[in-house]
Design brief:
By secondary structure, this protein is mainly α. The protein is built from 22 helices and two strands. Helix 5 runs antiparallel to helix 6. This is Tripartite tricarboxylate transporter TctA family protein.
Length: about 500
């Protein structure tokens, strides 16, 4: 009952006009940040952090938090409409969301994404409210060894997301891992794979790779394809929103995505991206129509979009309960607390109870605002698909180039954008999937730093990785999955040979 009374008190503070304006400003900026490629929630929060200096501590933090979880909503829009992820977690949404848009169900996909984000975001906030102190203790047990085991398990579980050729999948994973090693060695301080190019010393931005591989390559595909008026059929107003069948198929993925996202959000690393991939993989396995995945399955939008929004709430648990920011965006939030003289950690709830519960209540309100703000705009966003390609493609190119340049204000990044666009174009022609490359790129750094740091910790005894409870469990599961995949491959191969022998 104490939790309920505290939450009610938080709502009383969060529904003041000033708090509502701060929350609305945050979620609108967050949504726009998610839609526009390149900036991302971290960049937007960093740019607007000085704006919060003159504000009341609660109002400033409410605005920054609104930008953080609001960007999870907006990132799905361009992913669905033009196959361009607005931020990292939306890469998975591209797989089926864009296919739905090509079938005239882009509006339905965006509505499902908005509703799923609201449902899972609310579940995540409930989890944050009820379990923050206890669950955060689990996240603290992760050291370098556990990071390595998590990355290995993640690579095995998540690499073959679309179920295409295992050989092609692994090639793309290894390419992604190689790309993640470009830059300055974090331990030795020497250059790796930079070929003397100064701009490569800081590594390759994930956003550049994603925008080039998924976005600009799609522009090249459209430009290089046969001339056509529009690849999307005209739809009636009622078809802009999901029908009964799509809603029915989306409910369970939304709920499962909410739980998966919150749990993964407790862990260090790129939790929004990992949770969306895990959700996608699970929905494909549980679906009665797995053959539809990659071709426009609504579950492939509902699950991942729900998971990445719930993960945003989960990532707030170690931040608020222990003062540990496990992502770049939550690190900016820590700065927001500190500049207002508020120390996050175990004493936050005790020393600043009003602030804590006001922020929690504002997250509930922000979720409602995002739903109200996004659903009416579905028709407006979907109308983008009716623009002739000869007009739409140059606009997409212009926005993408501006977004890529804004990351580091570097012309070199534009060359990288073009290179990855060409690679993505020819990779699609050769039936190579881009998702495994993204998995390798995102998890590559975690894999390397975890392995090297872990070996130092255990003094070179690799078997200690298997003896630690958390890392050992994950590594043994990874080995079992590899054995299972090999046995299944051999069995399928032998079955095919036997069938061909019988037929002849």
């Amino acid at each position: 009952m104490e939790v309920i009374s505290n939450l009610i008190h938080g709502f009383q503070l969060a529904i003041t006009p000033q708090a509502l304006v701060a929350c609305l400003l945050g979620v609108i900026i967050g949504t726009i940040t998610g839609v526009l490629p390149g900036l991302g929630p971290t960049g937007a929060m960093a740019l607007l952090l000085p704006l919060s200096f003159g504000m009341d501590p609660a109002l400033g933090i409410i605005m920054l938090a609104g930008i953080y979880y609001g960007s999870m909503y907006g990132g799905s829009t361009t992913a669905i409409l033009v196959n361009m992820p607005g931020e990292t977690a939306s890469v998975v949404t591209c797989i089926d969301g864009y296919q739905m848009a090509k079938k005239g169900r882009g509006g339905a996909a965006m509505a499902v994404a908005a509703i799923g984000s609201f449902v899972a975001g609310t579940l995540g906030i409930v989890g944050l409210m009820l379990f923050a102190p206890k669950l955060a203790l689990f996240a603290v047990k992760f050291g370098p060894v556990e990071f390595f085991a998590l990355a290995v398990l993640g690579l095995i579980l998540l690499s073959n997301v679309t179920g295409k050729s295992m050989l092609k999948t692994m090639l793309m994973v290894f390419l992604g891992i190689m790309l993640s090693t470009i830059g300055i060695d974090p331990q030795e301080g020497v250059e790796r794979l930079t070929f003397g190019i100064l701009n490569l010393q800081q590594g390759i931005e994930f956003t550049i790779v994603a925008m080039g591989f998924f976005g600009i390559s799609e522009v090249l595909r459209v430009v290089g394809g046969p001339c056509e008026k529009s690849s999307v059929p005209n739809v009636r107003f009622r078809d802009l929103y999901p029908n009964k069948e799509e809603i029915k198929r989306s409910i369970n993925p939304m709920l499962r995505g909410g739980v998966i996202g919150f749990i993964i959000g407790l862990l260090p690393g790129p939790v929004n991206f990992i949770s969306s991939l895990v959700s996608y993989r699970m929905e494909k396995r549980l679906s009665k129509h797995p053959e539809e995945f990659g071709k426009g399955a609504v579950e492939g939008v509902a699950g991942p979009e729900s998971a990445n929004n719930s993960a945003a709430a989960g990532a707030m648990v170690p931040l608020l309960a222990l003062g540990l920011p496990f992502t770049a965006a939550t690190a900016i939030l820590v700065s927001g607390f500190l500049v207002h003289g508020v120390a996050v950690g175990p004493l936050l709830i005790r020393q600043h109870a009003d602030l804590f519960w006001t922020v929690i209540a504002s997250m509930y309100i922000g979720n409602v605002m995002l739903l109200i703000f996004n659903l009416p705009l579905v028709g407006v966003f979907a109308s983008v698909l009716k623009i002739p390609p000869k007009i739409l493609m140059p606009i997409i190119m212009l926005i993408t180039i501006a977004g890529a340049y804004s990351i580091n204000n570097s012309i070199f990044d534009l060359w990288l954008l073009l290179i990855f666009a060409v690679i993505g174009y020819f990779a699609e022609k050769a039936d190579f999937d881009g998702a495994p490359l993204v998995v390798g790129l995102v998890l590559g750094k975690t894999l390397e730093t975890g392995l090297r740091g872990g070996l130092v910790l255990v003094q070179g005894d690799i078997w200690q990785f298997f003896k630690r409870p958390i890392s050992g469990t994950m590594l043994y599961i990874a080995i079992l999955l590899i054995v299972y995949s090999v046995v299944r491959f051999i069995y399928a191969k032998n079955k095919k040979v036997n069938t061909n022998t019988v037929e002849t």
